[in-house]
Structures are given as structure tokens and as C-alpha cells.
Write a structure and sequence with these properties.
This protein is mainly α. It contains 6 helices and no strands. The chain has one domain (8-125). 64% of the residues lie in helices and 0% in strands. The longest helix is centred in the middle third of the chain and has 18 residues, at 49-66. The chain is globular, with a radius of gyration of 13 Å.
């Protein structure tokens, strides 16, 4: 199971999908957080709302057509494939930003165990030394 990201913003968008779909449902809180906070981060700056929505939609399509899933969330090996591919395209600063973004997104509607598992995989693969999920 393999997936490739062409640009860092695509990898970042894929990470948002890992979190939003972890508990089988995206929430209004997550959507609002994406548009209020994530879209305005350094990596997505300069993107219009429409461009940001198109990026999220095309990334979701790519993930769910390419990787094993149940229609709502990716299977654990697919999560690993996304994280590995993201790690290959993101630089050290972007990995840190992606981890922080993922933690804050997960906390936006209440951190659940499935999200914690993904966040730990991100933290480990991106070689981030501290755990933000307990703050």
C-alpha cells in the first residue's frame, strides 16, 4: 500500500484527513477549525477558501481511492502509508507544524483514542521529542 504526495500542502491536507476521519465522522468543530486556523497557517497562506476546499477534496479523493478504508476512515496500514509519504515530502519545520496542526485539530472537538494513536505515529515518525496530547 503506497501513496505519493506531490507537494507539502498535499501532505498537510492528508494529515488533516487522518484526524478528521479517525473517529468515522468529521465534525462541525473540525471544519470550523480547518477554515479558521489551518487555512491561515504558513503552509496554506495565500490560498483562497475555494482553493483550500479544492485541495482538501482532491486529497480526500486521492486517499480514499488509493488506500484501504471503510468509507469513513483509513485502515491502520493506510494511515502508516500516509504518514510515511508525508514524512518524505515535508522538511523538519513542516513536520513540526503538521504535528502541532494535527494535535490542535484533534483537540478542537475533543481528543479521542483513535486520534491519539495517529498523533503518536506522527510524533514518532516525524521524530518530535515531546507529546502535546497531554497538555
Amino acid at each position: 500500500m503506497d501513496i505519493q504526495f506531490d507537494r507539502p500542502v498535499e501532505a498537510m491536507a492528508a494529515i488533516t484527513w487522518l484526524i478528521c476521519s479517525a473517529d468515522d465522522v468529521g465534525t462541525v468543530e473540525e471544519r470550523d477549525f480547518l477554515h479558521a486556523h489551518v487555512r491561515n497557517t504558513q503552509d496554506f497562506s495565500g490560498m483562497s477558501r475555494d482553493d483550500f476546499c479544492s485541495l482538501l477534496a482532491s486529497t480526500r479523493t486521492k486517499l480514499f481511492q488509493s488506500l484501504d478504508n471503510n468509507g469513513f476512515c483509513l485502515a491502520p496500514p493506510a494511515v502508516d502509508a500516509v504518514i510515511n509519504s508525508a514524512s518524505a515530502v515535508l522538511n523538519k519545520d513542516q513536520k513540526f507544524q503538521a504535528y502541532v496542526m494535527a494535535v490542535e485539530l484533534a483537540k478542537s472537538d475533543g481528543l479521542v483514542d483513535k486520534e491519539k494513536v495517529i498523533l503518536e505515529k506522527l510524533r514518532s515518525r516525524f521524530q518530535i521529542s515531546f507529546d502535546m496530547t497531554n497538555e
